[in-house]
Design brief:
- By secondary structure, this protein is mostly helical.
- It has one domain.
- The protein contains five helices and four strands, in the order βαβαββααα.
- The longest helix has 34 residues.
- GO terms for molecular function: ATP binding; DNA binding.
- InterPro entries: ABC_tran_C (IPR032524), ABCF_ATPase (IPR051309), P-loop_NTPase (IPR027417), Val-tRNA_synth_C_sf (IPR037118).
- Keywords: ATP-binding, Coiled coil, Nucleotide-binding.
- It comes from Nostocoides japonicum T1-X7.
Length: 167
């Protein structure tokens, strides 16, 4: 486990550390704000987004994209609240039926996201027991996990959109 391992290192020491970790045969848990370092020495990246640990198959670029989405959503909520005639508790501009439909879809997506996360976690845990010499099988499992994560990303995007309507 390494916590901010690049702090106070000169470039020569940083290069030496990267070389050692790049060839490290075991598992590393690295917590760092140094995105270049993370991309260089890790195969999988995770981040805490909206209070939850989130796998980032797209690495730091995906993290930056998701953070930008969160910031845009926060800005649009702020702009809606500061618009003339609106107040923090004025609610969405939806009819009763539209509001119920949005709430229903929002709840449905939340349940589906929880189920997907359980499936992803279970599939990752199953990789440990999978025959490590079965590259075809491992590849198929990773493809299945990737499809689940892609679905999760799409649902999260829709969930954010619906959340904005409900605020």
């Amino acid at each position: 486990m390494l916590g901010e391992p690049t702090n106070d290192l000169d470039t020569d020491m940083l290069a030496a550390l990267e070389d050692v970790l790049d060839s490290w045969p075991g598992t590393l848990l690295v917590v760092s704000h140094d995105r270049y370092f993370l991309e260089r020495v890790t195969d999988q990246q995770y981040a805490i987004l909206a209070g939850h640990l989130r796998h980032l198959p797209g690495g730091v670029d995906e993290y930056l994209r998701l953070r930008a989405m969160e910031e845009r959503a926060a800005e649009s909520r702020g702009a809606a609240l500061s618009a003339p005639g609106s107040t923090a508790d004025s609610g969405p501009a939806l009819t009763g039926a539209e509001l119920r439909a949005v709430q229903k879809e929002f709840a449905s997506i939340e349940r589906r996201l929880e189920k997907l996360q359980r499936q992803i976690d279970g599939a990752r845990a199953a990789l440990v027991d999978h025959d490590q010499s079965d590259y075809v099988g491992l590849g198929a499992e990773m493809k299945r996990i990737g499809a689940l994560e892609a679905e999760q990303q799409q649902l999260e995007s829709r969930w954010y959109e619906l959340g904005e309507l409900l605020e």
